[in-house]
Design brief:
8 helices, single chain, alpha+beta, 48% helix
Amino acid sequence: MTSHGCPEVNAIDRIALAVRWIRDRPRKRHCCESAKASASRTRSAKSYRSLRNQRARMSRAGATDTDIARNSEWSDPDKYAYVNSLPASGCAWEFLRRNPDYQRAWRAMSSEPHRSDGESAGAAAWGLVRFESPERDARSANVFWHRAVSREVLPVISSRAAHAGHAERIPLNQLQCRVTIQTGRDGEQHILFAEDGRFLQLEVHGLQSLENDVCLTTEIVVPPRQAAARAQALKRFSDMITHGHLRAFLYPPYKRASRLARLLQVLDGRNAQVSYRDIALAIFGEERVSADWRDPGAHLRDHLRRAFRSGRERMMSGYRRLLK
């Protein structure tokens, strides 16, 4: 019985082992797959945390960049009230100084040795004769626009007067406005008269000193598109010599300055990573936001989104249109 039963038992054992092996094999594969999936999830979680930390660092770096020109009290509309009285050139500066690329260029220039008064060839890329600190708003900044981008720059030729009656002495030290002189790359002099966001800029060729008796001449035959701006610049210059400062009525506010003030406020809020709803609360108040924010048409939200897009476009390059 025993001798005949052994092969049968061994065969049954082998079949049972095979059944268990087949039954357990998927489970082991499943366990391996589970372990691999768990490891993959762990790696994904680590990658996500790494990406999140990287984004946070980038965000902090971006915040540092825009801290130069960002109004820390962006939620107070009164902080933007001065924009309502700015001429177009002052409004253009308010957008440019918020540009993070410009801010980085300014910092790079400031760190260069042997650079003084903001002189740098790179300023021309921004439409400037020289860099100006983005920390200064239009009321205190000395912004030298390049004549190629601004029609308000008055080009003049300084020469010795043939007769004493033709001579003119400009008492720069007696003017009541700020006077800044910058030498250009080609030896010309740029003279900026500035007062409360109003600017008058001369590009002087010829004699370097205007303190002596000189004769100033300029072209009067100019392209039609520049004629009005040239006549206005001459009028402003003559009035400044007569009265000693930049009288406000000759520098009217930009016709859409109030709208630009709103764009700047929205732009500053978004650059500070504030939500559209919080920006709406600061601008329109709790009552209107509570009534209109969840409106199916999303008019209020879309209004702020359009304002941000428009403000960002002007910050990046659209400020140049204000100078034409």
